[in-house]
Amino acid sequence: MSLNKNKTVKIIVPCYNEGGNIDAFFKAVCEVTSAQSGYDFGYIFVDDGSTDNTLDEIKKLAEKDKTVNYISFSRNFGKESAMYAGLKASRDARSDYAIIMDADLQHPPALIDEMIKVIEETGCDSCAARRVSRKGEPRIRSILARAFYKIMNRFSDIEVIDGAVDFRMLSGKMVKAIVDMPETQRFSKGIFAWVGFHTEWIEFENVERIEGESKWSMWGLTKYAIAGFLDFAASPLKAVGVFGSLTSLGALIYLVIEILKTMIVGKDVPGYASIISLILFFGGLITAVLSVMGEYIGRMYMETKGRPIFIEKESNLDEQN
Ligand code: UDP
Ligand code: MG
User: Fold this and answer.
1) Residue 230: CA atoms inside 13 Å, Cβ hemisphere, count?
2) What is the CA(15)–ligand 1 centre distance, in A?
């Protein structure tokens, strides 16, 4: 093996209940990879605690094909954890490149050719895919996604490209940088941008999944978006600070006016309404500030526990390396 000069590429596939897709996915990708020369492809299927026959299907492939590796989680940890586990395995194997792609063929295998070409031609560290249409997706999901990218790019420390999907080819160096980021609550779209490196983008039209349904509920996506934003933005903390200072200033001006009024025209009829509305206003403001702070403190609390990003139940990686 070590005699040939081929570059090694690990294809990382997070799978959660994709039993019906594994075979078709593997066939489609093999068609592309077998036509490539100069690269040795290997597969890292990450079974994210599937409850269907996903792991059996992967094991069947692994028996037939020595380039197929797998890691199976003890439960469902989420796609972020699955991607991390795959990247870590690619790093441990010292692969030259890693490619992350979904198991449902929504990421067209033909783009692998293009990614390799772009990386060879430009010498970039990463080539990532970006959807230019959201065809076949519920309208409300597209609208919310657009809004998310706008807010993210306006208020966070990083720039996230609209339509970017988790389908990308990364150099070993970039994989190492990502794996070395120890945070347990991960938002890869942000992490890819944060680590830097030269990234080139290629565009593709949205493709619908071949079998089964998206694992993302509207609520799940919303929580993911908020968590991702908070991971890379301290601006809400600053915003509530500014808001708090402005209202205090307003209250101070109001106080001065009241004092002057009392001095010039004498005591006013006592007004409950203004007092109550001020109490309510500040009560609300303090609660809002505390809840924003609480959100960050909660994330710090989870992070300080230092829990593992995933727990492996079984794998065939140890046998081969
Ligand atoms: N996935 C995963 N763990 C999860 C949810 C999803 O590994 O908890 C995988 C899933 O099997 C698929 C990819 O992540 O390969 C994308 O998931 P999905 O197609 O449901 O998301 P969408 O394409 O709708 O964004
Ligand atoms: Mg999908």
Assistant:
1) 18
2) 7
